[in-house]
Amino acid sequence: LKDSDQGVKDSDLGLKDSDLGSDQKVLGGEFFNKVCGHLKLLEKEYFGLEFRHHSGNYVWLELLKPLAKQIKYTHDLFFRFIVKFFPPDPGQLKRGLTRYLFALQIKQDLSNGGLTCNDNSAALLVSHILQSELGDYDEELDCQHLEMKQYVPNQEYLDHKIIKLHKRHRGVSPADSDIHLLEVARKLDMYGIRPHPAHDGEGMRINLAVTHSGVLVFQVWTLSTFYSY
């Protein structure tokens, strides 16, 4: 997650090299708790840390295993603090900071194409982001901002629709805009789904995703199997 304006950065967590496993007994959970403490985050059960394994794939930091063993042989170590579990109803999130971090995750997933949706949903999501970041609609400011910052792929085709929707949000606070953003996002088919590469019992490539309701198995990005909890 990254938002330089709010001091939440994926590259600056205020942690020392000594936190990264110099003590062979330090567990992944202890390091994760230090990160959450730095962010003053209480609802930490929704989040996780991932890093690029020496195999080349991103993997989750396992909380019950020693940190040193997990990052062994890993070069250019860089942790990403991201949302790991998406509740079906964002209303379950009790604290403003948690909702803010979820909103950051939605923004990031939108911009990199990880959260796909139709044009109408994309425009509505971006309109709530503009209200949160810029406040009430201002024609000149909106146009300049959309020129400089891309929130969704092919955004230039949606600018008019985004601005039209932003006009309707007059008077909505940044915190409430984040809530509206999450309410729209949770209705999308790909909400909370982060596929990870794997192989099935026959060695075929598949993608797995863990959600609040179960485990999804994708074959060539098509959902093939769902295992409910």
From TrEMBL:
Matching InterPro entries: Band_41_domain, FERM/acyl-CoA-bd_prot_sf, FERM_2, FERM_central, FERM_CS, FERM_domain, FERM_N, RAC1-GEF
UniProt domain FERM: residue ranges: 1-229
Xref: PROSITE patterns: FERM_1, FERM_3
GO molecular function terms attached to this record: guanyl-nucleotide exchange factor activity
Segments passing through the bilayer: none
Pfam families membership: FERM_M, FERM_N
Protein's name according to its UniProt entry: FERM domain-containing protein
The organism's taxonomic lineage, starting at the top: Eukaryota, Metazoa, Chordata, Craniata, Vertebrata
